[in-house]
Write a structure and sequence with these properties.
The chain is mainly α. It has one domain. 75% of the residues lie in helices and 0% in strands. The longest helix is centred in the middle third of the chain and has 17 residues. The N and C termini lie far apart (65 Å).
Length: 68
């Protein structure tokens, strides 16, 4: 019986963990701050907005370089 569950890839695949997601989001927020975005503004963003901004990092750095 163990071979049937072993052959079923969906039952033995690794699952995503919450801690890994929190680490990814934290690292992405640090990247936005490194691009010149104010830390107070980054804290107010949800993770979907953070990911959308990081799709175009050149635009983010350009937008906040002119603001300074």
């Amino acid at each position: 019986m163990a071979t049937s569950t072993f052959r079923n890839k969906n039952m033995v695949r690794p699952h995503k963990k919450g801690a890994a997601k929190r680490k990814r989001v934290r690292d992405q927020r640090k990247r936005l701050i490194g691009l010149g975005m104010p830390a107070e503004q980054v804290e107010k963003l949800n993770y979907n907005e953070v990911r959308e901004l990081l799709k175009r990092p050149a635009a983010v750095s350009k937008a906040y370089a002119t603001a300074e």
